[in-house]
Design a protein that fits this description.
CATH topology of the largest domain: TIM Barrel
Radius of gyration: 19 Å
Number of domains: 2
Distance between the termini: 54 Å
Order of helices and strands: EEEEEEHHEHEHEHHEHEHEEEEEE
Strand content: 15-25%
Bound molecules: iron/sulfur cluster, zinc ion
Structural class: alpha/beta
Length: 325
């Protein structure tokens, strides 16, 4: 059929006839041209602490201007933001916020960065890129909170404007990605490597879901992949699952599972492993990798202690990986 186009933004590689949308519902073929339906039209806008992303080693204690457009290219059965991520753009009332307005607002609210978050920023990559370029010109950082299901080419074009990213590594099993998320594993691993190689500060989040991806060996394998491919200084956040969306028949993740995963990952050689969405003894504390002193202590999203000076431990001067100022 004439006017048919293929979107090469993400691994779904949707082939679209005129009038047809991609799987993400936000990219439409208009007479042979691929158009974004969400450019400049976020459906969620908030000022959040950077710790909420979560990013624990990037400008701690700072506020970030957080925006999300409708739509996602994955179908995670546990999605916390399904009301906007799984919605078509016409189903949620948007704000009118072109890139200039996002940057103006972020500065007005005293934010240090703009975060593209809550849903999947990669499916509105043009909006993210234009905003990130402008943000950098005006002294603001850009943060991606993403599932990383994107093709290498478009990602590489964006990466140079991204200062930090929290990437979900939902599992180290391809079948989990296929069965629970409607995607595949390999592109996500590529994204993590590409962002790391591009100089973006990367932290990784793994949502631990009872019975589905909480096996000891699987969690060990995941931590091992992060260690071998991204290095021991890459923060890994094990996050607690709560029943949600299409996974309401499972219990919340037991705290012991998360604490054990953390201990195992630390024992394997990762320096900074955290527990999210749960209160544990040490799960939100950044410790010095050399002397073990508590360097950054957090209560909820609040930083209550910060013993890092010139990117090093204030006690023993060991460098601590991250962007601290
Ligand atoms: S970004 Fe959307 S339209 Fe493009 S390939 Fe992915 S799901 Fe399809
Ligand atoms: Zn130290």
């Amino acid at each position: 059929m004439s006017g048919r186009v293929q979107c090469v933004l993400c691994p779904h590689m949707c082939v679209l006839d005129p009038g047809q949308r991609g799987r993400c519902t936000v990219r439409l073929n208009v007479e042979g041209e691929l158009v974004s339906l969400v450019y400049g039209r976020p459906v969620a806008v908030n000022v959040d602490p950077v710790e909420k992303k979560p990013l624990f080693h990037f400008l701690p204690g700072s506020d970030v201007f957080s925006i999300a457009t409708a739509g996602c290219n994955l179908r995670c059965r546990f999605c916390q933001n399904w009301e906007i991520s799984q919605a078509a753009p016409e189903d949620v009332a948007p704000y009118d916020l072109p890139p200039e307005a996002v940057v103006d607002s972020a500065l007005e609210y005293g934010c240090r960065a703009i975060a593209y978050t809550y849903t999947e920023p990669m499916v509105c990559i043009e909006y993210v890129r234009d905003t990130a370029v402008l943000a950098r010109e005006r002294g603001l950082a850009s943060i991606l909170v993403t599932a990383g299901y994107v093709n290498p080419g478009p990602l590489m074009e964006l990466a140079e404007y991204v200062d930090a990213a929290n990437v979900d590594l939902k599992s180290i099993s391809d079948s989990y990605y296929r069965d629970v998320c409607g995607g595949t594993l390999a592109p996500v691993l590529d994204t993590l490597r590409i962002l790391k190689d591009s100089g973006t500060w990367v932290e990784v989040t793994n949502l631990v879901v009872p019975t589905l991806n909480d096996g000891k060996e699987e969690l060990e394998e995941l931590a091992g992949w992060v260690l071998d491919n991204l290095g021991p200084d890459t923060p890994l956040h094990f996050s607690r699952f709560f029943p949600m969306y299409r996974l309401t028949d499972l219990p919340p993740t037991p705290i012991e599972t998360l604490a054990e995963a953390r201990e195992t990952a630390l024992g394997m050689g990762l320096h900074h492993v955290y527990v999210g969405n749960a209160v544990t003894t040490d799960g939100m504390v950044t410790r010095c990798p050399a002397c073990g002193a508590e360097l950054v202590v957090r209560e909820g999203y609040l930083v209550t202690r910060m013993d890092i000076q010139d990117s090093a431990c204030s006690h023993c001067s060991e460098p601590v990986a991250g962007i601290w100022e």
